[in-house]
Amino acid sequence: MPELPEVQALVAFLRERTDGLVVTGVELGSISVLKTFTPPPDALVGAPVDGVERHGKFIDLDCGGTHLVFHLARAGWLRWSDVVPTTVLRPGKSPIALRVRFDDGSGFDLTEAGTKKRLAAYVVHDPASVPGIASLGPDPMAESFTLERFAAIAATHRMQVKGMLRDQSVIAGVGNAYSDEVLHVAKLSPFAIAARLDDAEVERLYTALRGTLASAVATASGRPAKELKDAKRAGMRVHGRTGELCPECGDVVREVSFADSSLQYCATCQTAGKPLADRRTSRFLK
Question: Which cofactor does it need (predicted)?
Fold first, then answer.
């Protein structure tokens, strides 16, 4: 799943390539991808791209005051083409969920792999009308996201810190991968309770959050969309590296599996050498 750094890179990528362009077509390859009915997708046709912004993990194309907003979810991606095929997109015939064409012949496809179709697109006059955007918490890369603000957030959440970092209504943009990375840098158990962290732990977590995301944004910056997934994987310290050696201490990277996801951590760095039980019903180490 693309998270804040990759989404920010996609926004920058689209800003550069759509500057001065006009939308000439919007085609649906999946009826279910579009979550709004008014205005229709054709309202985008003939409109210039006035800007591209990020809201958490949402990408927002402002086309003359009508916005195409989309969320790539777990298996979605953006595929750019300097020359888009002239054939009309047929619903249900390919992994392409939505295609946007521009007046210079270029455009992009939103694709989604797998059977669980969660990629979502919205055509709206106001991005704040998209439910997922309206409920977003603060952006961790914003100047206003200070240590004091983060400490206040942590103090009011009696939930596991891994879950707090991933909750989009608490902090916008962080998902499963970067929450693993942040917690490894901060040397905290993913199952520590946020409200029980002491001042030093909160500051360490805040510094790790901002630093990890800033580094990932810098790594992704300037890369074409097709390279972002591989760049993300290559930059991971523990996430997705079960069985490999921790780059900090040399211990083995361990995993806790859930029904549809998993997390990775280093016991030496994060849980005082004690492995976390890999069962959903276990009493996890706090």
Answer: Zn(2+)
